[in-house]
Structure formats: structure tokens, C-alpha cells
Amino acid sequence: MILIGENLNVMSKTIGPALRERNPAPIQELAKAEAEAGIDFIDLNIGPARKAGDELMQWVVKTVQEVTDKSLSLDTTNPVAMEAGLKVCKGKALINSISLQPDRLEQELPLVKRYNASMIGLLWGVEGMPRDAAERGILIAELLYKTGESGIPGEDIWVDPILTPVSVEINQVKSCFEFMSMLKDIAPDCKSTIGLSNISNGTPPDLRPYLNRTCLIMLMKHGLYSAIVDAFDSELVAIARDKRPELVKLVYRLMDGEKPALSSLTGEEVKYAKTVRVIMGETLYSHSWLEI
Predict the structure, then answer these.
(1) Which residue ranges form the domains of the chain, and what is each CATH number?
(2) 8 A C-beta contact, residue 89 and residue 74
(3) How far apart are CA 246 and CA 255, in angstroms?
(4) Which of 62, 66, 219, 270 is the most interior residue, by most CB within 10 Å?
């Protein structure tokens, strides 16, 4: 499992000001901490960066590369800033992300080829969010047609089917899982990734880790290649590194339809079992799902 650390983000109360002020200390401290936590890629999210985005992206790439040799995921909707970062990135960069919007495809697919980068293909179409697994299938077909025209090999494409909050629309969550179960048949050469923390948006902070960790295990059953995650959730990292096989086996059993008595499980296992039921839509989401 390839882990992409999400924490170096312009929306952070610490990182945002450091980016604006070109203050390297907080950024380098966080980058080193993410590397030490065991992630594989550090995502550099500078947002739209409409003003001097090219200079900002070059600066943050160089700043992070001074303290770690971890691979970098460059995250901005500004194609000029994206190319500026690619120019100074020492290793094979990951472009996060390219949607099916015509202007994004036209401006950014050439960058993938020119700089020998990998790309996250976000299944967001002209009409916005796909409604179900079938529409995701149509979008990936369009994506592969466009990337094929540009000479981008399948192994450089990381497909993101878009995960949504379980607290908002369970049918969208179920559609994402359905699509993931078919992805290897549809696009066998491509990799997969997911913005994992999206599943728990809107959930109280102390409960979010259970949704994130359980969802990761469930997607692992469908062959998930990588995930964009909170680098500092040590339990989640341990799950991704195959250090919690008992939890993985439990979640897989529940996904296969087994219904063990909760009284037969440990307290921690009960939390994962209840969370599986919520994500599968068997239990209605509420902030008290672990107490019911």
C-alpha cells in the first residue's frame, strides 16, 4: 500500500501562513515528520495559488527536498504552478490531480508526458460528480482515451473514483466501492488511489479515525493501490503496512456477510464491526454509531 501524506496543506493553520511568508521552518519540520511516520509520498497542496503560484510551487518543492528524498505529489489547480514544480522536482512526481474537465486535460496531460510524471486521474466529469458506478466507468473510458492519445502509459495513471462523506450520501459511498471492485477488470494497467479522509468529513474529530481506518481496509479488499491519508494516524499506517492482520481479517469476514455476535469480539473489534455496518449502509449514520 502506497501512502500519500495529506498534511502539508495550504488550509492548515500552520502551513498556510508559512507558505505565504515563505517561512521554511514549519514546512520542513512537517515534511520530516511525515517521512518519519512512514509515508511514501508527501503531498504539497498549495491550492489554486493564482498569485505567483509558479514561484510558490518551486519554492516549496525545493524547501521540502532540502530535508527529505521522499517522492512528491504536487497538488494545485494552477497548471503554470504545476509545471514550475515539475521542473525542479528531483524524482518522478505525482500530479494530483487531473479531472475530465477539457481545459484541465488540455493543459496538464502534456505535462505528464513532458516531465515523465505519474498522474491521479480524478473521475470528475464535465457534469461534475458521477452519480453511480456506471458513470464512473464511462469517465474512466474517456480518461483512458485521452491519456492514450497523449502517449501516457496505464501504469502512470492512478485512478481516483472520488470518495464522499458517509454522513452525507451513503449511495455515493456504495457506488465508489462498487466501481473499485470492477476497476482491475476495466483498467488492468492502471493503479488506484483515494482521498481517504473524505469518508469522515463532517464527523467529530475523535471518531474520524475509525471511519478512515475501516474504509481503508474495505478498499484494500478491492485491491486499492494507494491512499491519501493523515500521515500521523499511526494505527492507520500500521494497517496499511500489514501489521494489523486480525483487524483486516475481521473486516473482510464482515464484508463477506458473516455476522459474528458482538459479544464474541474485543472492544476494539466491536468498533470496527459497527463501522463496517455504517459504511456498507446496513446501519444509518449518526455521530453515535459506536454507542448503538
Answers:
(1) 2-233 (3.20.20.20)
(2) yes
(3) 14
(4) 219
- Between CA 75 and CA 44 the distance in angstroms is 6
Alpha carbon distance 279, 282 (integer Å): 8
List the one residue out of 233, 172, 240, 168 whose CA is nearest residue 200. 168
Which backbone phi and psi does 266 adopt, to 5 degrees?
-70, 165
- In a 3-state reduction of DSSP, which class is residue 41? strand
Q: Which has the closest alpha carbon to 39: 234, 247, 245, 244?
A: 234
Model confidence over 18-73: pLDDT tens digits? 999 999 999 999 999 999 999 999 999 999 999 999 999 999 999 999 999 999 99
Give the type of residue at 160: D
Predicted confidence band at 97 (pLDDT cuts at 50, 70, 90)?
Answer: very high
3 phi/psi in degrees, rounded to 5:
-110, 130
What cell numbers appear for 142 in the block?
A: 474517456
**DSSP string computed for 76-131:** -S-HHHHHHHHHH--S--EEEEE-S-HHHHHHHHHHHHHTT-EEEEE--BTTBS--
The model's pTM: 0.97
Q: With CA atoms as reference, report the closest residue to 166 among 208, 137, 134.
A: 208
User: Helix or strand or coil: residue 260?
Assistant: coil
Identify the residue whose cell numbers are 519540520. Answer: 29
